[in-house]
């Protein structure tokens, strides 16, 4: 059997779920290895992959090196006859490489999804010594590929590009914007800028709030809708109150993933103001429903805008004034130009990031090892 183990930090994301589905379709057997504290949320994986709970807590394995986990993983790989392992975490990569010393036929796929992986000198030394044990290096953006090549540790041809994607089965085809707004109790006549992201410092929702404050009086029908939760949400809510924008900015909070497409249908524009980003699925989801995009140029985002047909505005990360100008500019676009951005966005998704393209690339990559 073509068995592939995915070492996951958490329960994975929509990219993983689509990958599991694709691999099963093509005769592979994906295993999802999950730490015990995430088991309560892992029910969605059980139909997608062969579910394998790990009898370890995350910090036991990833905060410090665990010989106990290494032995467990070596025994697991041998017992289950695992042919390949995929991970996007550096510390999981170390365990995989050490396992290969005892089980040489194991293939290792290292999928890098965020920048700075080889920034630390110790990591660069380890990578230099054991790079020959890695059978495939994947990245999800040209920025990450260029970053790796710039270290001098890999050649361009050694790094494969695999853009992220997701399953479209939860995206309602015939739901109008008006219907979505009624369903979600959102203002029906407003021009809605929406952002879908966890409230973490690097997502910089606070920059969008500041930018909107600069020009909100010039765009009277505009409002901002934030979907998500996280550690800096309270700070953002406090700033909104301080700036007296409570009537203009809505905090929806955390919603189930299957509800996100409905919010996207309700938006006029998707905004993404992150300063650190691999390949943001939220932006790809915006493309998929045909939304114009305003996004900052963090890591993989410029790849999304790498098209001759305009899809919105790419602005410098952290530049509040540039974000504000983009909000104002897109608000006042003539209707035909605005609608063209949405059409181009949908086309961009279908030609570069669709599930069909992701499926083809995934099978090309994994089939090399079987």
From TrEMBL:
Question: Any idea which UniProt keywords this protein has?
Answer: Transferase
Coiled-coil region(s): none
Q: Which domain of life is it from?
A: Bacteria
Known SUPFAM superfamilies for this protein? UDP-Glycosyltransferase/glycogen phosphorylase (SSF53756)
Domain Glycosyl transferase family: start-end pairs: 177-348
UniProt-listed InterPro entries: Glyco_trans_1, Glycosyltransferase_grp1
The reply on keyword Calcium is no
* GO MF entries: hexosyltransferase activity
Record-given protein name: Glycosyltransferase
């Amino acid at each position: 059997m073509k068995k592939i183990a995915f070492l996951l930090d958490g329960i994975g994301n929509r990219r993983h779920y689509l990958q599991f589905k694709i691999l099963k379709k093509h005769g592979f057997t994906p295993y999802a290895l999950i730490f015990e504290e995430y088991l309560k949320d892992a029910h969605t994986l059980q139909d997608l992959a062969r579910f394998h709970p790990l009898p370890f807590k995350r910090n036991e394995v990833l905060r410090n090196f665990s010989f106990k986990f290494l032995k467990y993983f070596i025994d697991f790989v041998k017992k289950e006859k695992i042919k390949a392992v995929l991970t996007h975490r550096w510390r999981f990569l170390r365990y995989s490489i050490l396992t290969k010393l005892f089980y040489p036929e194991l293939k290792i796929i290292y999928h890098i999804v965020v920048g700075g992986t080889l920034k630390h000198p110790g990591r660069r030394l380890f990578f230099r010594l054991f790079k020959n044990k890695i059978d495939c290096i994947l990245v999800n953006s040209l920025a990450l590929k260029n970053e790796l090549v710039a270290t001098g540790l890999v050649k361009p041809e050694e790094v494969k590009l695999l853009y992220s994607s997701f399953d479209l089965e939860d995206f309602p085809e015939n739901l109008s914007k008006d219907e979505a707004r009624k369903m979600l109790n959102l203002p029906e006549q407003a021009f809605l800028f929406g952002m879908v992201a966890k409230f973490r410092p690097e997502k910089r929702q606070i920059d969008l709030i500041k930018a909107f404050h600069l020009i909100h009086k010039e765009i009277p029908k505009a409002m901002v809708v934030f979907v998500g939760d996280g550690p800096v949400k309270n700070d953002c809510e406090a700033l909104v109150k301080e700036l007296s924008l409570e009537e203009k900015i809505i905090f929806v909070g955390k919603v189930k993933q299957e509800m996100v497409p409905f919010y996207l249908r309700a938006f006029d524009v998707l905004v993404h103001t992150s300063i650190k980003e691999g390949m943001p699925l939220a932006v790809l989801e915006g493309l998929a429903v045909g939304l114009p995009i305003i996004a900052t140029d963090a890591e993989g985002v410029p790849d999304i805008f790498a098209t001759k047909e305009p899809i919105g505005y790419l602005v410098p990360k952290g530049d509040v004034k540039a974000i504000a100008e983009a909000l104002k500019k897109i608000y006042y676009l003539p209707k035909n130009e605005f609608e063209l951005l949405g059409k181009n966005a949908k086309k961009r998704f279908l030609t570069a990031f669709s599930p069909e393209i992701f499926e083809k690339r995934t099978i090309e990559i994994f089939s090399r090892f079987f």
